[in-house]
Amino acid sequence: MDRAAKEVDENELLIGSPDGPEERLKFPNRSLVFAVCAAGIGGTFQYGLNVSVINGPSQAVQTFINHTWLERYQATTPGHTLTLLWSTIVSIFTLGGLLGGCIGGTLSVKLGRKGSLLANNGFAIVAALLMGLSSPTGLFELLIVGRFLSGLNAGIALCVQPLYLGEIAPTALRGSISIGTVVFITGGILTGQLLGLKELLGDEGLWPLLLATTCLPALLQLLALPFCPESPRYLLMDRGDEEACEEALKRFNGLDHFEKEREEMESERILALGVQTLKPWELFADRSLRWQLLTVFVINSAQQLNGINAIYFYADSVFRQCGIAADKIPYATVGTGACECITALTCGLLIDRLGRRVLIVGGYFLMSVCCVGFTLSLTYQDASPALPYVSMACIFAFILSFGLGPGGVINTLSLVKVV
User: What is the Cβ-side half-sphere exposure of residue 141, based on CA atoms within 13 angstroms?
Assistant: First the structure.
């Protein structure tokens, strides 16, 4: 058996088709799996880690701010100032993400998909260094700058990683790989919550080390991603390097299956020759694209404003208001991450059965019900000893509804639009 035949046997499984003769079910080869993991570990995994890792040391960081303020001004930190500083540390991550999202598309063209992901790790490493040095230097301002750079890293990764994965995946596997993007996000969230446990790095004196661990996914990607090819579509469409494109297709699709992908890209390249790239203001002025743009805007705006990040950012505070014992809060927070991770893994099973629209609408409806229940239970939590547990149940139900609906489906829609 020659080498090509061996690769086909490794990547395919012969199954019976219910409609007739047997057909081959393709599985991703090792190069594709390695590229997905290498891109994900420093991409959306990094994003999920930064979302959740700040929750565990929330009290320790606020204590550090108090001590620093006392040393500087010989006075305790005013309550409203402490709240403002802590909220800034938490929320400036999203401001960095906004900026990263704005420049991610430009970087993906200038540096390439893989090149952008590699360069993006610089922001994560510098951010981790600044946050780790904040306590030894007595500068809580470093936390603000570090969180901003972490957000910048996350915004770029959320733009470039789905683009890279969508362009390296064979057509039959793009849906599965899009779900993988969500799995990396939830995996990062769960990892950050686990690291924040007192048995690991959740001790009050270890919080700088905990925040500095966000450099580890970046270092792993810097070690692994250089061994992966660049996006074949980028090589052909943007650089016109047909030879490199063909080599990348062979790596990702196998020797027997790259020709079809190559023909599709060549047809797309020919069609794109006579098409002028629209600038943003020209895109909005095109009446033929009005409904598509409106759909994309509404769906993605709803995902960003649905409150899931607020749940993770302020999970510890919410559980504390619900009456959960302080030593049990980290474990309850880990449960939220585990819920979304499980739903991300199972969402792919429901998409083909129920459809994307049903999952999105149903998910938002259930999330709305949970928000109403959560608000009422918090408002009247002193009326009954059971109401704090109702609040906690609403949080978990909210996360489950998000993971089974918008959390898993919208990222799939975004990847389909990209490719």
Answer: 2
